[in-house]
Amino acid sequence: MASFKVTGGKKLQGEIIPQGAKNEALQIICAVLLTKEPVTIHNIPAIRDVIALIDLLGDMGVKLTHLSETSVRFQADDVNLSYLETESYKTKAASLRGSVMMLGPLLARFKKGRIPRPGGDKIGRRRLDTHFLGFERLGAKFDFDPEDGGFYKVDASNLKGTYMLLDEASVTGTANVLMAAVLAEGTTTIYNAACEPYLQQLCKMLVRMGANISGIGSNLLTIEGVSELNGTEHTMLPDMIEIGSFIGMAAMTQSELTIKNCSVPDLGVIPAVFQKLGIKLEIRGDDIFVPAQDHYEIETFIDGSMLTVADAPWPGFTPDLLSIVLVTAIQAKGTVLIHQKMFESRLFFVDKLIEMGAQIILCDPHRATVVGMNRHIQLRGIRMTSPDIRAGVSLLIAAMSANGVSIIDNIEQIDRGYQHIDTRLNAIGAEIIRL
Ligand SMILES: CC(=O)N[C@H]1[C@@H](OP(=O)(O)OP(=O)(O)OC[C@H]2O[C@@H](n3ccc(=O)[nH]c3=O)[C@H](O)[C@@H]2O)O[C@H](CO)[C@@H](O)[C@@H]1O
Ligand SMILES: C=C(OP(=O)(O)O)C(=O)O
Questions:
Q1: What's the gap in Å between 228 CA and the centre of ligand 2?
Q2: Which atom of ligand 2 is found nearest the CA of 389?
Q3: Cβ(131) – ligand 1 distance below 6 Å
Q4: In the chain, which residues fall in CATH 3.65.10.10?
């Protein structure tokens, strides 16, 4: 288990380039299974989950050509389906959440698929019902017997397009069902589809491969099945969660930071939510400039009541940035209620922030009130463990703003989603040592 030793109180200065988007990469890389032709993908983030998924595809016989540090050509012309029966597949696929999205392409192209219960952040119950209900609507047979190796098995000898209303606007669920539907016979309509930029990017890539999809960007997707898809090239958007994390980091450390090439139109309400915390941002072309700010004051609602920041399916505010907003509010002036509606164990990390001196009341597993300290009291460095990716980075932000030295254990969690974060932040003034 690796750790970060963080010396707090260092200001950042300069420019940082966000990595390619983690959650987009996981969908896009699974989609290479849909064709036997080469698919070239650019701006791939060098993070643990993505590296693990690429390795897994390699083990399945997908040919990998590393064209540069961030570009890979994939060719799935000789996939070894018997690998799916092995212990190695089970262990590797179970190590990340994104692997579940191999199922849709496997069903579409090879008529069957299996996946162990996927990993990912332990942030509460993480159902897969939407995925399997969707596959069943397309005519697949689903089987899960915990006694039989713990695999979800799906058989789809004859996928047929249909109308379906998803039980939740699940991000990975929509991607999975969409990838199964593009090669199914006839018309599939997916209502209550998730429509994050990750999914919009996936749809655009599938269209370039020859798929027929309308309603892209909305919660109603219509797919006319085709019999084959061809190869393509795809470039990942910058990671909007990293961009939000850098905004929070700059504010908490009183740093002046330019976040480069943010693809601002794809950020939805993210900049506005940080602005509601009182943080000044300037959009300069496609960059976000965060000036050094000694103080920032949380807005109230129009009627004067306390601000609430809550997550919601896109175009609402992404749950993956709530932990960052929470930590950023610690040194604001004013009070904010953070309401994490989707996940039930994602706010427990606030106990570490409280130990550092933050004024936070955990109201229940879904809600925490942050009483901003307006820098009257500085956080103090402590030893802590990172429970999940976003809590991990929130703790890193807290440690970077604190007096003294902090140790953050279990930084493998951070590495799942943030590429070389220590090196990149040290280059602009942070003091983080990987132990
Ligand atoms: C690999 C990947 O892409 N992971 C992301 C993906 O996970 P993932 O696709 O696994 O998450 P889902 O979108 O399926 O659901 C996330 C949670 O939100 C709940 N839920 C979902 C939809 C809804 O309309 N109402 C609702 O309450 C679900 O019950 C679940 O607890 O989307 C999540 C929600 O944006 C993000 O946190 C994860 O980073
Ligand atoms: C929850 C997340 O990831 P995963 O779904 O991969 O666990 C995340 O990226 O914040």
A1: 31
A2: 10
A3: no
A4: 3-19+238-434, 22-235
Using the mean position of ligand 2's atoms as its centre, give its distance from the Cα of residue 427 in Å.
Answer: 26
Cis peptide before 315, with omega less than 30 degrees from 0? Answer: yes
The residues that are catalytic are 121
Per-residue pLDDT tens listing for the chain (435 residues): 899 999 999 999 999 999 999 999 999 999 999 999 999 999 999 999 999 999 999 999 999 999 999 999 999 999 999 999 999 999 999 988 899 999 999 999 999 999 988 877 777 778 899 999 999 999 999 988 777 677 899 999 989 999 999 999 999 999 999 999 999 999 999 999 999 999 999 999 999 999 999 999 999 999 999 999 999 999 999 999 999 999 999 999 999 999 999 999 999 999 999 999 999 999 999 999 999 999 999 999 999 999 999 999 999 999 999 999 999 999 999 999 999 999 999 999 999 999 999 999 999 999 999 999 999 999 999 999 999 999 999 999 999 999 999 999 999 999 999 999 999 999 999 999 999
- CATH code for residues 22-235: 3.65.10.10
Question: Does residue 119 have its Cβ closer than 6 Å to ligand 1?
Answer: no
Cβ 267 under 6 angstroms from ligand 2: no
| ipTM of predicted assembly, 2 dp | 0.98
26-44 exposure pattern, b = at least 16 Cβ within 10 A, e = fewer: bbbbbbbbbbebbbbbebb
The annotation places the binding site for UDP-N-acetyl-alpha-D-glucosamine at: 97, 320, 342
Nearest to 83 by CA among 63, 110, 60: 60
Interatomic CA distance for residues 113 and 217, integer angstroms: 28
Residue 130 CA: nearest ligand 1 atom is: 14
Q: Which residues of 333-357 are buried (b: 16+ CB within 10 A; e: fewer)?
A: bbbbbbbbebbebbbbbbebbeebb
Which class does domain 3-19+238-434 fall in? alpha beta
In single-letter form, the type of residue at position 391 comes to A
Write the CA distances from 101 to 6, 25, 93, 96, 249, integer angstroms. 36, 11, 10, 11, 32
Which token pair is 398?
A: 């807290």
Query: Which one of 389, 413, 421 would you pick to mutate in the ligand 2 pocket, going by the greatest count of ligand atoms within 8 A of its CB?
Result: 389
Helix (H, G, I), strand (E, B) or coil at 268: coil
Q: What is the pTM of this model?
A: 0.97
